Amino acid sequence: MMDYLTLPWDVLGIGAFWLILMAFLVALPCSQVGSFLILRRMALTGDAISHSVFPGVVVAFYFTGDLASPWLIVGAGLAGLISTVLIELIHKRTRVKQDAAIGISFTSLFALGVVLLETMLGKNVDLDLECVLHGRLGLLLEDETLPLLGQMVPQPIIVMTGVSLVTIVLMALFYRVLLLSSFDTGLAASYGYRPALIHYGMMFAVSFIVVAAFQAVGAILVIALLILPGAAAYLCSHRLKTMLALAALHCLLSAVGGLYIHVWFDTNMAASVVVCGAVLLLLAWLLGPVDGLLWKWFKDEPEHPDNETGDKIVTHSACSH
Amino acid sequence: MATPALETHDLTVTYHKRPVLYGVDVTVPEGSLVGIIGPNGAGKSTLIKSIMGVVPSSGGWVKVFGKSLKENLHRVGYVPQRESVDWDFPVTVMDVALMGTYGRLGLFRRPGKEEKRRASEALEKVGMLPYSNRQIGNLSGGQQQRVFLARALAQDSDLYLMDEPFAGVDAATEAAIIALLKEMRERGKTVLVVHHDLQSASEYFDRLLLLNMRLVAFGKVKDVFTPELLQKTYGGRLTLLSEVADRAAKL
Q: How many interface pairs between A and B have CB atoms less than 8 angstroms apart?
């Protein structure tokens, strides 16, 4: 048993720590912004953005030839915004509804990205489809390292630390704006907050985070990192701050669990992290302190506020008069 | 003459090039309790949303206490419809009451002791203080509406615009809300309330605003609560008759 637990460290040494840290740092900003996407009922828009940043990355890469260039983030941000504008245009200007509009815009943009990749860049570049779909988290240990505090730190970790910090500082700064505009757009607008500005600002932030996470876990799994932690935390808490903290905890546990799955079964690291995250969500659903199914089975009936029934009766009689 | 609490001139709103509200001219004196009544689709909610700038108006202007809304934003409180928010949202009763203080805090300042005191006081007033730590989804409809009112009280404004505060609440809450509104009027506040029930409208309010895409009439209840004007508002005898029949059926 002990062998299993220490196996990653025996095999990878400090590399095991870097992998966990990287997976955590990728998942963390996704989880925070994803929590708000869930509360704003925009989880699907998050999916859409994660796919549609791709053509932006390809075009920016074509001009810079450097995967680490900040222009990639700008390109991705713009592509993400284009996709949200496209969604709005389709569903406001035609009779096509929003869900279909999302389906149209992100698949088209992603496909456009694939076509651009193969025509503009040829097939022998760093930016290949394999990496776009599955990410290169597992290759972390082969990346360049930079000396920092006496340690050789893989470069992507430094980048993701920056992204995580920026995300968390921005979220803390705009916490109340995000809270109020997500909960009650009407009141927020009456305070002079600009709903459209907040919407597009948020979409730009999602694009920025997604493109940073993109190289590590790929376009498909990044969706999971946007939604899974927030959804699991949502099942466990009725307070927004607790929910955000639990989402972060979910990221950490998925990262650790993901590493074990990766080493034990020799599987793709990014997919392992997501599988672990999904298992955690399942546990949250079964055991969660708020809506946990298990607790409900133990109780005779679901919990109600003491005077709920009283109020209901009054409501009914009021209606019949 | 004293500055009116609210003045609109030629206020017009269009949705997709179709006008839903035409040239509304209204002057509401300070300290009045106004019911906005009219049939479904008359633009009652749209009227208060456009006054608040939540819905853009395509023409006309709004003045609040003699100044533009922007200059006097903190003197106006808005209570949206209860159905307009997601009650599963992970916030507590206290969190919602605190939102009433956000307007004056600006974008970045955090609510402090003073804000918490104001929110607690407001909750106390509507009888929801014992519930302050409860998640809002665990409340009944009437309790949710009280929380919304507490949030409005915490805003500490001078003019309030409320969108159907009586919708879906129990009789006890309805009585509590109307008592609260009357008390607010005593303290010199001006309150505009979108209201659905014709029968109670004449008892609850001292002024009525009859609306059907255009302003039909605005004035003291005894002057405007007349069969002719109501008929004009509700578009002819037929609708009015069915309204009465509806009410009779309910009784």
A: 107
Burial class (CB within 10 angstroms; exposed 0-12, middle 13-18, buried 19+) of B79: buried
A304 close contact with B: CB closer than 8 A: yes
The pair phi, psi for residue B99, each rounded to 5°, is -60, -25
Per residue in B22-51, pLDDT tens?
888 889 888 899 999 888 888 888 998 989
- What are the structural domains of chain B? 6-250 (3.40.50.300)
- Specify the length of chain A in residues: 321
Given a contact cutoff of 8 angstroms between Cβ atoms, the answer to whether B156 and B129 are in contact is: no
pTM of the predicted model over 0.90: no
**Are A268 and A224 within 8 A, CB to CB?**
no
Please indicate whether, in this complex, the C-beta atoms of B99 and A184 are within 8 angstroms of each other.
yes
Does ipTM top 0.90? no
Per residue in A218-258, pLDDT (tens digit) is 777 788 899 999 999 998 888 899 999 999 999 999 999 99
Fold of A2-320: ABC transporter involved in vitamin B12 uptake, BtuC (1.10.3470)
**In chain A, where are the structural domains located?**
2-320
Q: Which of A184, A241, A243 to substitute to test the interface with B, most B CBs within 10 Å?
A: A184
